[in-house]
Amino acid sequence: MDWGMKNRLSQVIQPDGHCFFLPIDHGYFQGPTRCLEKPGETIKPLLPYCDALFVTRGVLRSCVDPANSKPIVLRVSGCTSVVGKDLANEALTTSIEEIIRLNASAVGVSVFVGSDYEHETLLNLAELANECEDYGIPVMAVTAVGRELEKRGARYLALACRIAAELGARVVKTYWCEEDFDKVVNSCPVPVIVAGGPKCETELEVFEFVYDGMQKGAIGINLGRNVWQNAHPVAMARALRAIVHENATAKEAHELFNDVRNSQ
After folding, report:
1. What's the pTM?
2. Distance from CA of residue 253 to its chain's centroid?
């Protein structure tokens, strides 16, 4: 691995080998999203607790302060919406020149294994990896999204993650599953990051799946809605950071969440 690739990965993955990405890219397919109507205001109190932002170039330019930000994982796939026929029909949206111009530390692209657009989205990943490797920019593949989210068993997740790694992803973001998540992680030759998925019913539920995912080998998390749609987003961010970077248990994180919430 060359110096530039190592350097960029070190910006988003901390010295302890763990990471907490805060995604605010949801508008690229679902438009105005509750609590993300003004992304800049949403993220401002959360920046101290996350390690990187996962964001589109439009929101990055218009809503993120370039002088007071965190490393950027740039969302570079899209061109579908929730009112369209199929969210899996994505294309690459951002050139390598734009990625460099925006000083992204990494880029993220979705792949839809098992969908009608499996070939197209896997080719997007392969072509992006070809370009980004030339410039030392790591690619994060986002798996098991859209309708494929219903296939969240370990067998499917392991298949999708391994294929993404084989095609050149340096990091894979996927969903936690209750059974055999360690097999998903252990069969993927690159680091795995746990996605948040649909908003959970309780804070403890979030802490429990994050803790379990970390214990089973994930290097970090990429959680958005379960943070900024919570009534106490700062408390959520602090508690999740404690699990990721301070080895807190789910119970300890929940206690921290309540302490922070009650002090606000």
Report:
1. 0.95
2. 20
How many angstroms separate the CA atoms of 98 and 65, rounded?
A: 18
Length of the chain: 264
| Look-up of token digits 């302060």 | 65
In angstroms, the CA 53 to CA 33 distance is 17
Quote the number of domains for the chain: 1
- β-pair partners for 106: 73
> What is the domain range of residue 47?
3-225
Strand partners, 141: 109, 172
Q: Is the alpha carbon torsion for 110, 113, 117, 121 positive or negative?
A: positive
CA-based nearest residue to 256, from 226, 235, 232: 235
Separation of CA 138 from chain center? 13
Domain with residue 101: its CATH number is: 3.20.20.70
- Asked whether the beta carbons of 10 and 140 are under 8 A apart, the reply is no
Q: C-alpha distances in angstroms, 197 versus 61, 143, 193?
A: 26, 11, 12
Q: Could you report the per-residue pLDDT of 187-243, keeping only the tens digit for each?
A: 999 999 999 877 788 999 999 999 999 999 999 999 999 999 999 999 999 999 999
Side chain identity at residue 28, one-letter code: Y
AA identity, residue 141? A
Question: Which tokens go with 187?
Answer: 């069969």
Whether 173 is a known active-site residue: answer yes
Is position 54 within any domain? yes
- 245 within a domain of the structure (yes/no): no
Q: Please pick, among 6, 38, 44, 173, the residue that the annotation labels catalytic.
A: 173
Q: What are 207-218's pLDDT values in tens digits?
A: 999 999 999 999
Residue 171, in any domain of the structure: yes
